[in-house]
Amino acid sequence: MSRVAYVNGVYQRHAEATIHVEDRGFQFADGVYEVWSVFGGRMADFEGHMTRLHRSLNELRIDIPMSAESLTRVLKETIRRNRVRDGIVYLQVTRGTARRDHPFPAPGTPPSVVVTSKSIPFARSQAQAAKGVAVVTHPDIRWGRCDIKTVGLLPNVLAKQAARDKGAYEAWMVDEMGLVTEGSSTNAWIVDKAGKLRTRDTQANILKGITRTAIMAMIEAEGIELDERPFSVEEAKEAKEAFFTAAGAFVMPAISIDGVKIGDGKPGPIATKLRARYLEEAKREAI
Ligand code: PMP
């Protein structure tokens, strides 16, 4: 018997069920999910999972895609069409499909809804439970590998949206020591009040930006002194200049941080020079 998936209002053959390439679940892990156990074709802990779903959606400011009654109908219908007696039903709701950009898409962008259901022999679980199963320990790194350019970008999305909500272009993320790690999609730099160019070292848990590396070669060629050392929010606010780097943004001067004017509130000379130099070299070398 072929399986069936519900995707955005349509029951499709599971093997052919697809979501758009620019769905935010795929691009940013910008979505939530729930799983219900199914016993004899009926969902267990129904209200508990439904309540948590609404909480998760609310926390992420994702629109509720349909009424609880409609969703219940879809969950039941997916179980029925898959002839699941014992197993699970899986629901995923994402922030929908939009041109790829970290901030939330335009209001009214419909969330994506996917429901699948599969049979899991209850006897298998009973057999495992009768014997007991093994456990191993593992470091809790959720998500402590910011050096990997992963698509698990939900925290970055929330940081970028926080910037947009405050009328800013970028958010600089701050660790528990009050030190700036990096931007939500960029590497962060300052020219500190002593005139030293500073950016966090990549031994720390940040992405090693390719633009950052390219800029470093130019800094050396220009004879500018670089200190690869983290800086605090306070140091950033007192800096002569602040800027950030990334593919797409190149070198972008920041003129204020949390409303505090940086330097004289205009793009600084070092950022301006590095931007021009980067663009010149990047254009020349582009293949
Ligand atoms: N940090 C983060 C979190 C990023 O997502 C990016 C890239 N978008 C960068 C830094 C900058 O990297 P690159 O210069 O390679 O674009």
From TrEMBL:
Gene3D superfamilies: 3.30.470.10, D-amino Acid Aminotransferase, subunit A, domain 2
Gene Ontology annotations for the cellular component aspect, listed alphabetically: cytosol
InterPro entries: Aminotrans_IV, Aminotransferase-like, BCAT-like_C, BCAT-like_N, Class-IV_PLP-Dep_Aminotrnsfr
GO molecular function: branched-chain-amino-acid transaminase activity
Catalytic activity: L-isoleucine + 2-oxoglutarate = (S)-3-methyl-2-oxopentanoate + L-glutamate; L-leucine + 2-oxoglutarate = 4-methyl-2-oxopentanoate + L-glutamate; L-valine + 2-oxoglutarate = 3-methyl-2-oxobutanoate + L-glutamate
EC code: 2.6.1.42
The protein's enzyme class: transferase
Keywords from the named record: Amino-acid biosynthesis, Aminotransferase, Branched-chain amino acid biosynthesis, Pyridoxal phosphate, Transferase
Family that this chain belongs to: Belongs to the class-IV pyridoxal-phosphate-dependent aminotransferase family.
UniProt name for this protein: Probable branched-chain-amino-acid aminotransferase
Source organism: Brevundimonas subvibrioides (strain ATCC 15264 / DSM 4735 / LMG 14903 / NBRC 16000 / CB 81) (Caulobacter subvibrioides)
